[in-house]
Amino acid sequence: MAKKPDKPKPEKAPAADAGGGDAKKGGGGMIGLLMLGAASLASSFGLFYFLTPAPVDAAAACPAPEVVAETTTPLAAPGQSYVELKEILITVGSTPATRYLKMNVSVVTDAAGAQAVKNAEPMLIDAFNTYLRALELEDFENPAFYSNLREQLARRSELVLGNSVSKGVLITEFLLR
């Protein structure tokens, strides 16, 4: 058999860099990393310099105390009287006695109406119980319900006592088990 002639191997050109690596090396090396760092630094500076709001003068931010001074009317007016009613204990919902509500209520009135509230206490408790027994457990899970509860109890106390005697109700204890 005949031998194939050897092909001459091309000679390698001397390496352009000291590492002896391939001449087609990509990336950019150290210079590329320095350029990337400089670009990041410049963009960070621009972001904070141009997008930061202008400083506000301290005098403009806080008005003078004379301008802000408003008088508020106190909720507890002089001459008001608070008549605490007996504790209310009822079962909640239509299921048999698994959950109950324990509640203490005070009626807000003036000093002259305190005796009228004491005299009408059984009627007030009856009116409150009638409303509370109609509630379901889902009603108590709604956060907006509690302000509505106070309004409903105040309306029932106005119906029993009259607008001139009852000035509202306060829920002093509320326990749902």
Short description:
This protein has helices at residues 29-51, 58-61, 65-68, 114-119, 121-133, 137-140, 145-161, and strands at residues 80-84, 88-91, 100-110, 168-176. With 177 residues, the protein is an alpha+beta fold. The chain is elongated, with a radius of gyration of 42 Å.
Please report the first level of CATH classification, the CATH class of the domain at 86-176: Alpha Beta
Distance between the termini: 104 Å
Secondary-structure class: alpha+beta
What is the residue-mean pLDDT, rounded to a whole number?
A: 81
- The parts where pLDDT drops under 50 for at least 5 residues are none
Number of helices: 7
Q: Work out the strand percent.
A: 15-25%
Question: What's the CATH architecture of the domain at 86-176?
Answer: 2-Layer Sandwich
**What is the CA-based Rg, rounded?**
42 Å
Task: Kindly report the CATH topology of the domain at 86-176.
Answer: Tetrahydropterin Synthase, Chain A
Keyword list:
single chain, 177 residues, alpha+beta, Tetrahydropterin Synthase, Chain A, 4-stranded antiparallel sheet
Topology:
Layout lengths: L28 H23 L6 H4 L3 H4 L11 E5 L3 E4 L8 E11 L3 H6 L1 H13 L3 H4 L4 H17 L6 E9 L1
Antiparallel strand pairs: 1-3, 2-3, 3-4
Write a structural description:
- The protein is of the alpha+beta class and 177 residues long.
- The protein has a domain at 86-176: 2-Layer Sandwich (Tetrahydropterin Synthase, Chain A), CATH 3.30.479.
- Helix content is 40%, strand content 16%.
- It contains 7 helices and 4 strands, in the order H-H-H-E-E-E-H-H-H-H-E.
- It has helices at residues 29-51, 58-61, 65-68, 114-119, 121-133, 137-140, 145-161; strands at residues 80-84, 88-91, 100-110, 168-176.
- Strands 1, 2, 3 and 4 form a 4-stranded antiparallel sheet that branches.
- Strand 2 (88-91) and strand 3 form a beta hairpin.
- Helix 5 packs antiparallel against helix 7.
- The chain is elongated, with a radius of gyration of 42 Å.
- It starts with 28 loop residues before the first helix and ends with a strand.
- 10% of the residues are buried.
- The mean pLDDT is 81.
